[in-house]
Amino acid sequence: MGVRPADFTGTDILQLAAELSAAGRAFALGVVVEAQGSSAGRAGAKALFDVQGEVIAGWVGGGCAESTVAHAAVEACATGVPQLVEVDLDSEVLGAGMPCGGRMRVYVEPVLPRPALWILGHGRVAECLCHFGALLGFTVIVDDTAAVAERFPEAAHIIADDPDYTAVTPAAGDFAVVATQHRGDHESLRRLLSSEVGHIALIASRKRAGLVLAHLRKAGFDRQALDRIRAPAGLALGARTPEEIALSVIAEIVLVRRSRTDREAAPQPGDLAATRAEPLRLVGRMR
Prior knowledge:
This protein is of the alpha/beta class. The protein is built from 7 helices and 12 strands. Helix 3 (about 125-135) runs parallel beside helix 7. Residues about 1-5, about 95-100 and about 265-285 have low confidence and may be disordered.
């Protein structure tokens, strides 16, 4: 869907939120959960903010209140962590230097597109990865000429006519697993290394992984590029069966995914969030 101009009346906020989510757009929903005094926003008032903090639709209060919630929306979209924001409208540091009156508590919920899990290959390990990935909230895309829908019922998309992996276009926040059973390791990894994908996992024995990395090194990929590949993939669970191998690989992906979120959400020195307990109390603006 296209970008709509800000709309403050006549919009079903929850319906619009559903449309934005279905279109894969990131945004934040702000809901006034409590209002006291003469605050303009009332309990239940809602607004949608884009990742830059611009109002898409709705209204949670004007001026200082909107600015504060917008800052929280930007941070929530960046970290994926919801916030409960307390806006003190009695402070004279707000707006034009005079108190607005009252106070509000606004819950800000980030709504982010689900990361994609690209599975390159087929077979039992790939099938289990598809199941685990869908169960854990990934949009699963399978790319393999031998992949059939019956074997990957939970895949969002199956690409079976792409022998050269030209249709593999993962985004920076996506994850990719190469399970080509040695027949497409080199070609698939070349394609992935030319993309922005944040995590590349190669399912192979330690010996085979070493041979593949050596081949890519001779092909001109430097150490920084090859360090993007986790090979052999998976946490050290002592996995033996295809199901256990898939579990170790998806567990590592979850670890990487949550570690990213934790790093992004961690307060930096001097941040207001580092010195105050929840709910986050903001006066005028958010650092």
